[in-house]
């Protein structure tokens, strides 16, 4: 274990127990791993109860809409006060977008609002591997910028941080980590002295091991060892940056996804029902940003941390264009084929450039793109659970997911119908 006085600190953690539905959020590596039974989003999640505790109310389920109203969009994105398209006026070097996430955490430390921030930094042996760290100096947040790929037992650092005397914490995490953290928050407050918890969430839908991610890099670049940046953008392109400064943009349709092994994305990611990190105080992502970052300010604490940025951040209302239904239906057909062991329907090579040119111009963009991705994840969850673990549908499928898939006529088993019952 490194010295607690080091700028970045992480404990030596025990190995995670072997579990089928597990993203190694870190809870199973704590002194009381049995809490997973009540705190894991892949066992028996209760989003309405946690949303009500964190935000003062559960999301509104007014039915799918074509945009704009909180009731409609809360079905997709969870409770929120305000949605914004945003960017830092002076982008931070090394950030994945402009650096809003780590800048908020830095400002929290500078203002003395929190004692420490739990986040991930690059592993010293592999810059793509996430390493959970405890940050106590504002300037060290710069080392947490950028995207990592792989499992990070972030929650395992919370109790050691409290034991070190850091009673006011900020945590930057992905949905499965944040769900577990929120589930045990009352226990941490009651028994371990947690006084304040600020959660900055990032969206997530598909993760994989760092080793598998290196396989993907080798498919998209002849020099995978020189790739320094990779981002799936809302304009239907993947952006890759190299050590020599070269930038390459690959249309989604040109990605070699069909060559990936069937288990490249684990079953947990294929059955995740929380794309937008609904239990965070503020979600910072990209899907609804149309080239900028997308913020969902979810509660008063989220509003307060955004205000810490002052005039460093430029914001505007997010836009929305195009229609998602066709894209989502096409996605559903491919998921059903893949889940049944059939090959994906491949587009002819001559047609790919044409469709690739059209998608950013006539496909769903902005908030409509974000709604499409959330519906896709909901449909993917239902298809894979029905085929691979139908008994779990009663406990793993929240009511809002059943609402999301209903417009697409997805056949549902008796278990799924039970899940939809009030």
Report mean pLDDT, rounded to a whole number: 88
Helicity level: 25-40%
Distance between the termini: 49 Å
| Beta-strand percentage range | 15-25%
Helix/strand class: alpha+beta
> What's the number of structural domains?
3
Our count of helices gives 15
Largest sheet: 9 strands, mixed
- Write the H/E string, N to C: EHHHEHEEHEHEHEEEHEEHEEHHEHHHH
Strand order in space, largest sheet: 1-4-3-5-6-10-11-2-12
Description:
The chain has 422 residues and is α+β, with helices and mostly antiparallel strands. The chain folds into 3 domains: 8-207 and 268-317, no CATH class; 210-264; 319-422, no CATH class. The protein contains 15 helices and 14 strands. The strands form 3 sheets. A 9-stranded mixed β-sheet has the order 1-4-3-5-6-10-11-2-12, with helices on both faces. A hairpin with a 4-residue loop joins strand 8 and strand 9 (247-251). Helix 10 (325-339) runs parallel beside helix 12 (367-388). The longest helix is centred in the C-terminal third of the chain and has 22 residues, at 367-388. Residues 1-5, 64-70 and 414-422 have low confidence and may be disordered.
Question: Keyphrases for this structure?
Answer:
single chain, 422 residues, alpha+beta, 3 domains, 9-stranded mixed sheet, 3-stranded antiparallel sheet, 15 helices, 14 strands, 17% strand
Topology:
Blueprint: E1 8-9, H1 36-39, H2 47-55, H3 70-77, E2 82-88, H4 100-110, E3 116-123, E4 126-135, H5 158-163, E5 168-173, H6 175-192, E6 196-201, H7 210-220, E7 227-232, E8 237-242, E9 247-251, H8 267-270, E10 282-285, E11 293-297, H9 300-307, E12 313-316, E13 320-321, H10 325-339, H11 352-362, E14 365-366, H12 367-388, H13 393-396, H14 399-405, H15 414-420
